[in-house]
Write a structure and sequence with these properties.
It is globular and about 55 Å long. The strands form four sheets. Strands 3-2-1-4-5-6-11 form a seven-stranded parallel beta sheet, with helices on both faces. Strands 12-9-14 form a three-stranded mixed beta sheet. Strands 7-10 form a two-stranded parallel ribbon. The chain has two domains: 212 residues, NAD(P)-binding Rossmann-like Domain (Rossmann fold); 88 residues, Alpha-Beta Complex (UDP-galactose 4-epimerase, domain 1). The chain has 324 residues and is α/β, with parallel strands linked by helices. The chain is built from ten helices and 14 strands.
């Protein structure tokens, strides 16, 4: 098992998920360096005593320099673009940022002799599933460029592993929400929970994109995992990297909630009415994606500790906090 004292480069470590994982790594006693171009990340999420390298992952020299300068022995790679609609509109941009960005980081690792790698993949690699819990062995047929780029990243990791012995874990995580505190909260506009919370605070009606899916209430169904649980899964995954490793694991709760159920939970937690407006389906949105989490429980002994009420309550508290 990897003991406290690991030294990690966290790309995208000023982002929402990356910053939560930096916190979890440091709580274990590991040393962390953050590399982030701050196009989406926030310096406020990075503690003053954590080195911050302001650079793009596309700059292989900068990544290699950070690994060498700080004597790091592993990478957790979060830096990527993640908006499905944006990926549909700008596929070339997503291939550059998500696939070429990963290639650049792996090239830097090869130059620096770093052989431990945790990759943030996505349930978007599966595409349109049947609604049953999807296992890691399911056929991957992504339905949008975002998912395609994440799957291409997994292919690249597997090929580098076969060629060089790179040790890696790819974590396919599902819909991430919640917050440890206001400083680390999700400030983006790509994820359902913060979008609905912002609408509630403004007194606006949130949008539901499609209520004619083959799901119990017609709206999309997703598996929502608390960001603290996801961060813990990343920390646990580093333990696999002591020996030969080429592992792909789902990270989710194993239970799906519909968009309308999430909105009802927001209304209950916030104590405010939520009356959504129904719009047409968005291109690239599958009806239901829910994780089978048996493998991660077996391999890491990990399971989610938080349910949807916890997720929404933590996100709401962070949204209305005076420091938000």
């Amino acid at each position: 098992m990897t003991m406290p004292g690991g030294r990690w480069l966290v790309t995208g470590g000023a982002g929402y998920i990356g910053a939560h994982t930096v916190r979890a790594l440091r709580a274990r006693g590991d040393a962390v360096v953050v590399l982030d171009d701050l196009s989406a990340g926030l310096t406020a999420r990075v503690d003053d005593d954590v080195p911050l390298v302001r650079a793009s992952v596309l700059d292989e020299d900068a990544v290699a320099g950070a690994l060498a300068e700080h004597g790091l022995d592993g990478v957790l790679h979060f830096a990527a673009r993640k908006s499905v609609p944006e990926s549909v509109a700008h596929p070339l941009y997503y291939w550059r940022e998500n696939v070429e960005g990963l290639r650049s980081v792996l090239g830097a690792c090869a130059r620096a002799g770093v052989e431990r790698f945790v990759y943030s993949s996505s349930a978007a690699v599966y595409g349109a599933t049947t609604g049953a819990a999807v296992t890691e062995d399911a056929r991957c047929v992504p339905v949008n460029p975002y998912g395609t780029t994440k799957l291409a990243g997994e292919w690249l990791l597997a090929e580098v592993h076969r060629a060089t012995g790179l040790r890696y874990v790819a974590l396919r995580y599902f819909n991430v929400a919640g917050a440890h505190d206001a400083r680390l909260a999700d400030r983006g506009r790509e994820n359902l929970v913060p979008i609905v919370l912002d609408a509630v605070v403004r007194g606006d009606a949130p949008m539901v994109f499609g209520t004619d899916y083959d799901t119990p209430d017609g709206s999309c169904v997703r598996d929502f995992v608390h960001v603290d649980d996801l961060a813990d899964a990343h920390v646990a995954a580093t333990a696999l990297l002591d020996g030969p490793c080429a592992e792909t694991l789902n990270v989710g709760v194993g239970r799906g909630y519909s968009v309308l159920e999430v909105m009802a939970t927001v209304a209950r937690v916030a104590g405010r009415p939520v009356e959504p407006v129904v719009a047409d389906r968005r291109p690239g949105d599958p009806a239901a994606v829910v994780a089978d989490v048996a493998r991660i429980r077996e391999r890491l002994g990990w399971r989610a500790r938080h349910d949807l009420d916890d997720i929404v309550a933590s996100a709401w508290d962070a949204r209305v906090s005076p420091s938000a």
